[in-house]
Amino acid sequence: MPDPKLFTAFNFRVEITVPGLFDDDVCEAAFSDCDGLEMTMAVRTFQEGGNNTQQVQLAGPVSYGQVTLKRGMSADFGLWRWFQELMKTDKRGLRGQASIVMLGADGSEQATFALKDCIPLKLKGPALSAREGVIAIEEMQIAYAALELKMPGVPS
Questions:
Q1: For 26, which of 16, 40, 81, 135 could close a Cys bridge (C-beta 3.0–4.6 Å)?
Q2: Dihedral pair phi/psi, residue 61, rounded to 5°
């Protein structure tokens, strides 16, 4: 049996809430894929006067990736509702909060990636084909303003 303390990439769940959208809970699901949990810090480099053998590196602004979620279609169309509400002129500021929760082999929470002020960028329906018996997959890309890693038992 796998060690419950090991991080596994296949066992996770996604929770998205959008305050002001229906009952706030847009999605709580197990997705087949989640990609794009990333932060990049720009480094500013300059040469210190009189010191020709090294450079000074200063931390610059941080940029964030875009999360891509894929899952099997279900009867819950919360992601579609969120996207459709944002298309309305008076709802353009509707931002969501998302959590990607990594689970251990025993189902316990190992780590949580908290995505702040999310907005859906792309929504793609499943490819439909009567010739193939594959599972219908939909895809959504979400931009986020900040990313925070939360670990159980470690204060934020």
A1: 16
A2: -70, 155
Q: Do the beta carbons of residue 39 and residue 64 sit within 8 Å?
A: yes
- Asked if 10 and 33 touch (Cβ cutoff 8 Å), the reply is no
What are the backbone angles phi and psi of residue 114, rounded to the nearest 5°? -95, 120
Identity of the amino acid at 102: M
Domains located in the chain, CATH noted:
12-150 (2.30.110.20)
Would you say the pTM of this structure is higher than 0.90?
A: no
What does 5-33 look like in DSSP terms, one character per residue? TS--SS-EEEEEE-TTSTTSEEEEE--SE
Render pLDDT for 68-113 as a digit per residue (tens, 0 to 9).
988 755 566 788 888 888 888 888 888 999 999 988 878 888 899 9
> Whose CA is closest to 102, among 40, 149, 43, 44?
149
Q: What is the pLDDT of residues 3-57, one digit of tens each?
A: 545 566 678 888 889 888 767 677 777 778 899 999 999 999 999 888 889 999 9
65 within 8 A of 38, measured Cβ to Cβ: yes
